[in-house]
Every structure is written in structure tokens, then in C-alpha cells.
Amino acid sequence: MKYFPGIIFATVIAIVATFLSKLEIVKETVNFSPLILAILLGVLIGNIWKMPESFKPGVIFSLKKILRIAIVFLGFRLTFQNVMEVGLEGLIVDTIMLVSTFLLGVFISRRLFGLDAEMSYLIASGSSICGASAVLATAPVVRAEMHHAAMAVATVTIFGTIAMFIYPIVYKSFGNILGFDDVLYGIWTGATVHEVAQVVAAGFAISEPAGNTATIAKLTRVMMLAPLLIALSFYLAKKHATHGAGVALRDIPIPYFVFGFIAMVGVNSLQIVPDNIVQQINLIDGFLLTVAMAAMGLETNINKIKGVGMKPIYAAALIFTFLFFGGIISLKIVHQIFG
Q: With contact defined as beta carbons under 8 Å apart, do 241 and 218 qualify?
């Protein structure tokens, strides 16, 4: 019972965010997803109104438990067959861009701008994998504070939104010079743009083949969230081990929910769940993610975000530049070899 007030409050914010995202004026101006609107509303409400203490347990429950459940059922958004559909070319580009962007993102954030390790991991994971969802999934692994997560979400939202508009313009203006067709454009978009929704918008702005390829390439990237988090968990445990004593399994913050995510991908790949049920699962899962985002917003202190300053934005801008140009170069090289 102690969880109900906070869960209900976060749920109401999620409902309002979902409603607002469907308004024409929102679609035509900012075109933000319910996830982004939920965190914005949560931050706004949480910083202008002192939330009753009775809400706290439910908000924390939404942020931790509901989030993990939602990430598990993200697995129903893709199949192992999707990976095969994008082909070896798309898979290689996805892998190159994910690994290089994550490593470069951490380096840029820490070495060039002096950001905390936790913030660096969050910005790097959000940019390299799947935006806000990756930030949320990475936060408990690196034990990040909520204002760090909120700032990381802000960076991927800003530059993912910019990408959503810039990519179609660049392709329409310079596609021939780049030597891209609609399928190659789709791979480039799916391998480098931040959020799934942004990839879908940028892909289908060109054509159906471009949109389908972009979506599959992006979902393949989403699947790579699991091995990245597991690898990051082992790395952090080893890094924090003292005097070379080794790493005990209990010291490794293994994100067990990731195995649930992989299991759901496997179930979905078997196609034993009817399509209409899968659609309902994805609908509910999207809402659960929105509830978790609302809770994260409520737990975010705007004064702490101000204390971080503009450095995360600058770091994310450099990472975005690398994604844009690095994606073009990687795709051209891989296409030259495997195309």
C-alpha cells in the first residue's frame, strides 16, 4: 500500500504526457515522444511543488522496479530475424558505430570536459545505443544520480531531434554525392540517430524502404544494449577491485533484467505470441517506460542540473558530430568491402 500514492502520481503524469504527445500542435512543433514529455513534466512538477513524503516510496519503485520490467519487455520490439534482415553490412556498421561512439563518448566527456564518470557513461550509452531508454538502463549499473540521468536524457533529446530533421535534408541534397541509395541511407540513419522514434521519423521521411531499413538497423542497435551493460558491469567491478585482489561475483552489479530482455527477444523470435498481443505488450511497455521517466523527473533536482552547466551539451555535440560523419565514413568503407 505504501507504494500506491507515488505510483499513481507518476502514472497520472505519464497519462498527461501521452495525451500531450498526440496533440497536433506538439507534433508540428517539437514532436517530442511521451518519454521526453514525461520527464519534462516530472522535473517541472518536482521542482515547483514539494512532493509529500508518502509519494516517495512509489516514485522510487516506479524508477527502479517498473523501469526494469519495462526494459525486459522492450525485447518484444525486435527479433533475431531483424538482425538477419539488416544483413551483415548493417550489423557491422551498427557494431562499429556503437563501440566507437561509446568509447569516444566516455573519453570526450571525461578527458575534454572533466565530467563525472557516471555522467560520461550515461551520455555515451544514450548516444551510442537508444537514447533515453539506454540512459535509464545504464543509470543503475553505474549507480548514477538522477540529475545526471536527466541531463544525459536532455542531451540525446536535443541532438536526436536535430538529427531527425537534418538527415533527410542532407540525403535529399547530397545523396548522390555520398553515393547512398535509400537502403544505405536507412542503415546510416539506424546506426547513428539516437532514439527509435527519431529514426523512424527520419527514415520514413525519405521512403518506405529507407524507413524499414532504418528501423531494423536501429532495433539491432537496441539489442546490443544487453552485451554492453554486462560488459560495463564487469569493467566497473574490476576497476573498483582493490589491490588486484580480483573480482568476486557478488561485487559485480550485473543487470539481471538484461537477461530478461534477451529472453523476450527470443520469445518474440519464435513468433508464438500472436501479433495483436505483441502490439498490446509494446503499447503497455511504452507506457511503463513513460511512468519510469515521470518518476525520474520527479526525483531530479534542477539546481543540481544547473551545477553541471553546459559541459554535457558540448560533449554531446561533439559525439553527435562524430556519429554524423563517422557513420558516413564507416558505411562507405563497409559497403565497399561487403556491398
A: no
Distance of CA 285 to the CA centre of its chain: 15
This prediction's pTM: 0.74
How would you write 87-156 as a 3-class SS string?
Answer: HHHHHHHHHHHHHHHHHHHHHHHHHHCCCCHHHHHHHHHHHHHHCHHHHHHHHHHHCCCHHHHHHHHHHH
The CB-side HSE value for 150 (13 A sphere, CA atoms) comes to 29
Other C-beta atoms within 10 Å of 221: how many? 28
- On whether the CB atoms of residues 71 and 137 are closer than 8 A, the answer is yes
- pLDDT tens for the chain, 339 residues: list them: 789 999 999 999 999 999 998 998 888 877 677 887 888 899 899 889 888 889 999 998 998 789 888 878 888 887 888 778 778 888 899 999 999 999 999 999 999 999 999 999 999 999 998 888 788 888 888 888 878 888 898 888 788 878 888 998 899 888 888 889 998 999 999 999 988 778 877 888 888 788 878 888 888 888 888 888 888 888 887 776 654 544 444 555 556 777 888 899 899 999 999 999 999 999 999 899 889 889 888 887 777 667 668 899 999 999 999 999 999 999 999 998 876
